[in-house]
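Sequence only, no structure available. Ideas?
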Amino acid sequence: MQIKGKTAFLTGGVGGIGVAFARALLEKGCKVCITDVNADGGKKLEAELKQKYQDDVVFMQCDVTSASNMEEVFKTAVARFGGVDIMLNNAGIMHEGRWEAMISIMMRGTVIGTNLAIAHMRKDKGGRGGVIINTASRSGIYVYFTNPVYCAAKSGIVAHTRAWADIPDREQLGLRFACICPTPVDTPLMDITRESVNYFDYKYDDIQQMGRMTTETIAEGLVGLLEDDSSNGAILYISKDEGFARKKILVVNESDLKHA
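Reply:
I predicted one. Tokens follow.
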């Protein structure tokens, strides 16, 4: 895929990884519709980015847990830019005390966004094809007793991505599906509290041991997936020590996963 001239629809675009995604795509000549529930932060980010990228970027407030709101905003983005070629389901939180919100934002939000993108992009229905990339986590591959619900949501995102990547008529539809599974990234999400995770001391030590990557590193992985037409079904695992490692997870046994 040549990113220049394409249009991306980005959820969870106001903080952390989302901002890095937006900047990386804009630098590549892509138009970006940034969405987030945070209206104030979104307007500030839009004003900042418009100084350099002008009409190639727009912010729209959006609640990914609302199918009707997502559809409305998605249609507005399509009308403004003439279509969407890249769907980035990136919205997320990590707070075990708000487990229902975690499931709704990450799992439900990803399903809603994926369904909207497929319906719009599929070539057999008049679309021009495209790529759907979902932000998951290392917690979508491995399990952690400190974050059982977070693991469940991120595992669901990985499974959902892989399932769509396996559809028999995917090439005719002109679609690609992939997900990104990073270890801890230097964002507020990793500023954990005793309310946001179980067994706080264990989780804190785990984050300290793994270290935090920059958001720019994750954005670099995104660009690589988009530009690689063979990336369908890819699970891009990114860690501070191992760098970029594409993983095709074909098993569910933990001992096998460690060698996948």
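The mean pLDDT is 93.
Hope that gets you unstuck.
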